[in-house]
Amino acid sequence: MIDFTFTQEQEDFRKQVADFTASKIAPKVKEMEQNKTADKEVVEAIKQAKLTGVFIPKEYGGLGLGYVARLIALEEIAKVSPGVSMMLQIFGLGIEPILKSGNDDQKQRYLPGLSSGEKLATVAVTETTGGSDPTGIETTYTKEGNYYILNGRKIMLTNAPVANTFVVLAKDPNNPKAFSTFIIEDNFEGFKRGKDWNEIGLHGCSVGEILLQNCKVPQENLLGEEGKGMRVAMSAIGEVGRGGMVGVGLGIISTLLEQSVNFSKKRILYGKPISNLQTIQNKLAQMKLDLEISRLLGYRAASMQDKGQRCDLEFAMAKYYTTEAAQKCAKMAVDIHGGYGVVEESIVTRFLRDSFVLGPSAGTSDIMMVIIARAAIG
Ligand SMILES: Cc1cc2nc3c(=O)[nH]c(=O)nc-3n(C[C@H](O)[C@H](O)[C@H](O)COP(=O)(O)OP(=O)(O)OC[C@H]3O[C@@H](n4cnc5c(N)ncnc54)[C@H](O)[C@@H]3O)c2cc1C
């Protein structure tokens, strides 16, 4: 049996997050657009609502609601602020490797703090020499007594300016095939934050760098087996990372459609609303279709994840479709608004900028196509 409906608990949760977003995030959107960074009060509100721990099991202090609920939260928040949704999505991406690959001690030490928001996480893979190709990274680890010593620079990291817990991928300088993943706290010796990055959109979410200069990492902070860390990082990015981008994209498409429908019903030309024009209707129909297809792909993948099934291919397809559709829908929405669509303070212009920042995050569309083609070819 295939059931395409949300449970009552999921519907209630959606309403709860929508109310939270209206009261705690919507009033801060203008300020976040101006400051372009994460807002302290918004971060605090997210912690209070325990949204960082949506999918962390209750035994570790999380809400224990699973990955469909996580997608619901990200979609609802992104309807108002794709930037805040992106921030929350990457907090989750930093949690996943500890949840999935951490040992009991690591889970006990980190998950309760990550559930309450006392600890805020991110994943640090990207470097100047390694984005789509993570094997190109140059950050190294070596073992010295009870510590690993890490050296390198990680760039383009969502939440780097606000997070205190970093899941970092590094390589063994003596073995080009060996990569390991570590949990690094911002108070470890040799850890430094680098410069902030200014993206064209997704404001309300801060992006930055970290510098590891003989950073001393206790051996008990190695995540998974030494030399097998590529899998730890990539499986989290493949499911939770790409799933999160779907959530941000869904919120964007949903609001673009709503704004476009409202505008086209109110805008009178030739004595009639422009929603009567076939060209406008074609765009609205395409946006509605894109929203439905993206939702089906995204929630199917998340429900497979809740059942413990492998779903990296399903998330790659959902990520590709949703983030490409968000960009196309943003252009159509701007077009529908005529000259009103290109003034800086309009929502559709803001969402157009946001939609373009979605593309590379958690893997570009080209990389999604490589993954999908590989599955098709077998
Ligand atoms: C807003 C934002 C947030 C981010 N947050 C994080 C984060 O929290 N942590 C983190 O580690 N990283 C983060 N990233 C980095 C992100 O993962 C990389 O941008 C992404 O993996 C692409 O890498 P790149 O930017 O180096 O582009 P490149 O890898 O240099 O790609 C350049 C071009 O080549 C194409 N290309 C590359 N390989 C192939 C191929 N095999 N076939 C066809 N085309 C190909 C790409 O599609 C792209 O068009 C973030 C990026 C952005 C924009």
UniProtKB/TrEMBL annotation:
Residues 123-215 form the Acyl-CoA oxidase/dehydrogenase middle domain. The keyword Translocase does not apply. Keywords: FAD, Flavoprotein, Oxidoreductase. SUPFAM superfamilies: Acyl-CoA dehydrogenase C-terminal domain-like (SSF47203), Acyl-CoA dehydrogenase NM domain-like (SSF56645). This is Acyl-CoA dehydrogenase. It comes from Desulfurella multipotens. It holds the Pfam family Acyl-CoA_dh_M. PROSITE patterns: ACYL_COA_DH_1, ACYL_COA_DH_2. Belongs to the acyl-CoA dehydrogenase family. Its cofactor is FAD. One of its GO terms (molecular function) is flavin adenine dinucleotide binding. Residues 227-376 form the Acyl-CoA dehydrogenase/oxidase C-terminal domain. Residues 7-118 form the Acyl-CoA dehydrogenase/oxidase N-terminal domain. InterPro entries: Acyl-CoA_DH_CS (IPR006089), Acyl-CoA_Oxase/DH_mid-dom (IPR006091), Acyl-CoA_Oxase/DH_mid-dom_sf (IPR046373), AcylCo_DH-like_C (IPR036250), AcylCo_DH/oxidase_C (IPR009075), AcylCoA_DH/ox_N (IPR013786), AcylCoA_DH/ox_N_sf (IPR037069), AcylCoA_DH/oxidase_NM_dom_sf (IPR009100). The keyword Flavoprotein applies.
